[in-house]
């Protein structure tokens, strides 16, 4: 079993625990923005897509990479935009009166 | 700058991105800091992308910049959709995320530099299967939510056997490739079989189960990105994927608990079917109904009102009229709060977003566990487009398909008012004994028009 796999597994398990602890505290009020925000963060696969597309090893890998760049970047941009729009709408009774 | 030093700068940028991502989710714990979360996430993502563009391996910018522009061009309009369309937008973004993870995995298989080892083949195979099935599954979910596809469950005899055999075939092909990675022709077949499985997986699932399904697909999309991190040995992908995956997983658990069902039951249960037969034989029972004038008079006489919104409110686009009702009653000194069931609507937190959009302060939106104890002291429970989540049969009737599901105890309020189009028991087909209680008044009509009628009686509205 490659050494990389083991170190990645460590990272995966630790990140999973961090995620669990952090997300457990998110109020159910914000579960929809939570989903769109994690979607935007998950779109960081765009960095892998950029490398595949930009390395241009074969036409096929670049085409696949380019599709991946467009799909994940649209998730990232759209995810951040809609999350912010949603969060702007959440106002408390007090801030509304002021 | 030497190549090694540059690589280190890139790594530091990725580490900073990971820290910012975790902070981003941390900020989301409170609505007051939540917008900082978006900012932290944006900075992290921008850092990682800019660093990657400096990676010397990225030599052909044409292949990168044009797709980035296209991505932004597609992403911005998808970020601007109307709030009622958020569930289908979310499903679509799961599809995009999974698509890109699958595409990169496939590209990695065809990259010619080094032959794929058996171990790598195993990783790639699993990653591409999960990515592909999540892609088509999410597209089907988005289609159902957009009502391009029928929302009711589509079921046939032997469905589970067919679906599981298709999944088995995809996994079998992956195993064959691990045994002999040289059989490259099997790879595209595996992808196609996995794509078919995604369709079969989601087609039988009905609209009411969408909150769970969307959460599960969220989790699959996250884990496929994490697996991709394993394939590419990229820690930033492993972390981001693990965060997304665990988020989706937690939400799925919450949704399942809120429906008192197991994962397997949602995925393979074909829920909708059982219920139709359960509701078939019901004797005629009397219900009491009321006009908007009568409803307005009862609401005005109340001290405490709890409004229970459901998917029907979203369908009728009634949230803004509901806000007018809230304003009119609050002005007259009535205490109005909203009871939010975890699975109300089509995705987790759906009702909160719709009501927040209509400008209802979030401290008036109360979770089920918190508000259930208050119903005995509530004068009026007004139910707008919610059904199963208020059905007392879930507490008492062991034969009911929803028996054991946690519900909002609206039947304990002094008066219950239910806005509903007719006595038809929605597509789920479960009869609701709540409607036949002496304390219940049925308000028949379209949610938006009926609430508008009440608001006019109260002397508010426009």
Radius of gyration of chain B: 25 Å
Strand residues, percent of chain B: 5-15%
Would you tell me the overall average pLDDT of chain B? 89
End-to-end C-alpha gap of chain B: 66 Å
Biggest sheet features of chain A: none
Strand content of chain A: under 5%
Instruction: Please estimate the helix content of chain B.
Output: 55-70%
- Uncertain residue segments of chain A: none
What about the largest sheet of chain B?
A: 6 strands, parallel
Describe the model.
The complex is a heterodimer of chains A (98) and B (462). Chain A has 98 residues and is mainly α. Chain A has a domain at 26-87. Chain A is 82% helix and 0% strand. Chain A is flat. The model of chain A has no long low-confidence stretch (mean pLDDT 91). Residues 270-281 of chain B have low confidence and may be disordered. Chain B is of the alpha/beta class and 462 residues long. Chain B is globular. Chain B has a 6-stranded parallel β-sheet. In chain B, helix 17 links the parallel strand 4 (380-384) and strand 5 (415-420). Chain B folds into 3 domains: 1-59; 84-269, no CATH class; 292-457, TPP-binding domain (Rossmann fold), CATH 3.40.50. Chains A and B meet through helix 1, helix 2, helix 3, helix 4 and helix 5 of A and helix 1, helix 2, helix 3, helix 4 and helix 8 of B.
Name its key features.
heterodimer, A: 98 residues, mainly alpha, 5 helices, 82% helix, 0% strand, flat, B: 462 residues, alpha/beta, Rossmann fold, 3 domains, 6-stranded parallel beta sheet, 6 strands, 59% helix, globular
Question: Could you provide a short overview of the structure?
Answer:
Chain A is 82% helix and 0% strand. Chain A contains 5 helices and no strands. In chain A, helix 2 runs antiparallel to helix 4 and helix 3 (46-55) packs antiparallel against helix 4 (59-89).
Topology:
The complex is a heterodimer of chains A (98) and B (462).
Chain A: H1 3-24, H2 31-42, H3 46-55, H4 59-89, H5 93-97
Helix pairs in contact in A: 2-4, 3-4
Chain B: H1 3-27, H2 34-53, H3 62-79, H4 86-110, H5 118-145, H6 159-179, H7 186-202, H8 210-232, H9 235-259, H10 263-268, H11 271-280, H12 292-301, E1 304-309, H13 311-315, H14 319-331, E2 335-340, H15 350-357, E3 365-367, H16 368-371, E4 380-384, H17 393-396, E5 415-420, E6 440-444, H18 447-457
Parallel strand pairs in B: 1-2, 1-4, 2-3, 4-5, 5-6
Helix pairs in contact in B: 1-2, 1-9, 4-5, 4-8, 5-6, 5-7, 5-8, 6-7, 8-9, 12-18, 14-18
């Amino acid at each position: 079993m490659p050494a990389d796999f083991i170190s990645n597994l460590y990272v995966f398990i630790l990140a999973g625990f961090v995620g669990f602890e952090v997300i457990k505290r998110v109020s159910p009020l914000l579960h929809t923005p939570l989903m769109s925000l994690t979607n935007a963060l998950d779109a960081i696969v765009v960095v892998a897509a950029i490398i595949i597309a930009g390395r241009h090893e074969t036409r096929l890998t670049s085409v696949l990479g380019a599709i991946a760049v467009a799909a994940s970047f649209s998730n990232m941009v759209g995810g951040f935009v809609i999350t912010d729009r949603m969060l702007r709408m959440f106002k408390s009774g007090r801030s509304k009166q002021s | 700058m030497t190549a090694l030093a540059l690589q280190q700068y890139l790594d530091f940028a990725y580490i900073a991105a990971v820290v910012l991502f975790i902070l981003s989710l941390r900020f989301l714990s409170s609505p007051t800091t939540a917008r900082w979360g978006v900012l932290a996430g944006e900075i992290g993502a921008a850092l990682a992308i800019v660093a990657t563009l400096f990676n010397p391996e990225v030599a052909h910018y044409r292949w990168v910049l044009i797709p980035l522009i296209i991505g932004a061009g597609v992403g911005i309009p998808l970020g601007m959709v109307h709030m009622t369309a958020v569930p289908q937008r979310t499903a679509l973004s799961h599809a995009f995320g999974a698509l890109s993870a699958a595409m990169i995995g496939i590209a990695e298989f065809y990259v010619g530099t080094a032959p794929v080892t058996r171990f790598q083949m195993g990783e790639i195979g699993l990653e591409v299967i999960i990515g592909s099935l999540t892609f088509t599954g999410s597209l089907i979910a988005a289609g159902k939510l957009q009502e391009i596809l029928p929302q009711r469950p589509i079921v046939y005899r032997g469905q589970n056997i067919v679906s599981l055999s298709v999944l088995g075939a995809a996994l079998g092909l992956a195993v064959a490739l691990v045994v002999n990675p040289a059989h490259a022709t099997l790879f595209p077949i595996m992808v196609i079989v996995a794509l078919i499985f995604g369709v079969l997986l989601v087609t039988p699932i009905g609209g009411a189960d969408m909150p769970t399904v969307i959460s599960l697909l969220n989790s699959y999309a996250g884990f496929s990105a994490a697996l991709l991190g394993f394939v590419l040995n990229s820690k930033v992908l492993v972390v981001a994927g693990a965060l997304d995956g665990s988020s989706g997983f937690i939400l799925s658990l919450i949704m399942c608990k809120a429906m008192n069902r197991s994962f397997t039951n949602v995925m393979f249960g074909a829920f909708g079917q059982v219920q139709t037969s359960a509701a078939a034989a019901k004797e005629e029972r009397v219900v009491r109904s009321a006009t908007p004038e009568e409803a307005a008079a009862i609401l005005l006489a109340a001290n405490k009102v709890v409004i229970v919104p459901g998917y029907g409110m979203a369908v009728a686009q009634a949230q803004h009229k509901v806000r007018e009702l809230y304003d009119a009653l609050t002005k007259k000194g009535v205490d109005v709060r909203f009871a939010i069931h975890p699975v109300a609507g089509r995705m987790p937190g759906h009702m909160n977003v719709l009501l927040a959009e209509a400008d209802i302060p979030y401290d008036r939106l109360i979770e089920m566990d918190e508000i259930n104890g208050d119903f005995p002291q509530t004068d009026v429970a007004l139910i707008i487009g919610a059904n199963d989540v208020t059905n007392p049969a879930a507490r008492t009737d062991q034969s009911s398909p929803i028996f054991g599901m946690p519900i909002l105890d609206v039947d304990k309020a002094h008066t219950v008012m239910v806005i509903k189009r007719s006595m038809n028991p929605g597509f789920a087909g479960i009869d609701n004994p709540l409607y036949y209680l002496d304390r219940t008044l049925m308000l028949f009509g379209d949610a938006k028009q009926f609430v508008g009628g009440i608001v006019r009686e109260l002397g508010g509205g426009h």
